[in-house]
Design goal:
By secondary structure, the chain is mainly β. It has a single domain, classed as Jelly Rolls. It contains four helices and 13 strands. The strands form three sheets. It has a six-stranded antiparallel beta sheet with strand order 1-2-10-7-12-5, with helices on one face. The protein has a five-stranded antiparallel beta sheet with strand order 9-8-11-6-13, with no helix packed on it. It has a two-stranded antiparallel sheet with strand order 3-4. A hairpin with a 6-residue loop joins strand 1 and strand 2. The longest helix is centred in the C-terminal third of the chain and has 9 residues. Pfam families: dTDP_sugar_isom. Keywords: Isomerase. This is dTDP-4-dehydrorhamnose 3,5-epimerase.
């Protein structure tokens, strides 16, 4: 498995080897051993597996979880194609406010480990894009927050907001500055502590 550290501290991209024969393909899209080798501890125990299907032009996120409780994710695109984004929301982090992007697709089965306190989102580039999320904690709506993917300070390379397909929550999500003013951004030290305890 090829591994690459993204610009956001703690976010790791995994590109698995795809085995092909006349029947089709086989791939190990997740390897606990590979993850453990690159995050410096045993891999987190997944508590929930979530899947979303999106039509072309859909933008989901940027989503993150209050700290505490915090949530780490392992994200993989199983079908279709998505431009994936991670944003460091951890106040005090050496990469705070920094973002990175990568292309996830059903063809490559590339995946990301996203630590506690890092925001995640994507833009679906094809109809029926299927993204799977292994999560370290269960989904609790009251703990889930969103950052505007169209925050002009971040300037993520996304389709025009007027043409994007968004949920109401994502369409009205606050900017990074507004989240900071509301005291909703994760603390770096606390997020790292929660991530290490998974």
């Amino acid at each position: 498995m090829h591994v690459r550290q993204l610009k956001v501290e703690g976010v790791v991209e995994f590109s698995p080897e795809i085995h092909r024969d006349r029947r089709g393909t086989f791939v190990s899209a997740f390897s606990g051993e590979a993850l453990a080798a690159h995050i410096g501890r045993s891999a987190f125990a997944a508590v929930q597996l979530g899947c979303s299907t999106s039509r072309r032009g859909t933008v989901r996120g940027i989503h993150f979880t209050r700290c505490p409780p915090g949530m780490a994710k392992y994200v993989c695109c199983l079908a279709g194609e998505a431009q994936d984004f991670v944003v460091d929301l951890r106040k005090g982090s050496p990469t705070f406010g920094c973002w990175d992007t990568t292309r996830l697709s059903g063809a490559t089965k590339r995946a990301l480990y996203i630590p506690v306190g890092v925001g995640h989102g994507f833009a679906a580039l094809r109809d029926d894009t299927l993204v799977a999320y292994m999560m370290s904690t269960g989904y609790v709506p009251a703990d889930e927050l969103a950052l505007s993917a169209f925050d002009p300070v971040l300037a993520l390379p996304l389709p025009d907001a007027r043409e994007a397909v968004l949920s109401e929550r994502d369409r009205t999500a606050p900017t990074l500055k507004e989240l900071d003013e509301q005291g909703l951004l994760p603390d770096y030290t606390e997020a790292r502590r929660l991530d290490a305890a998974l």
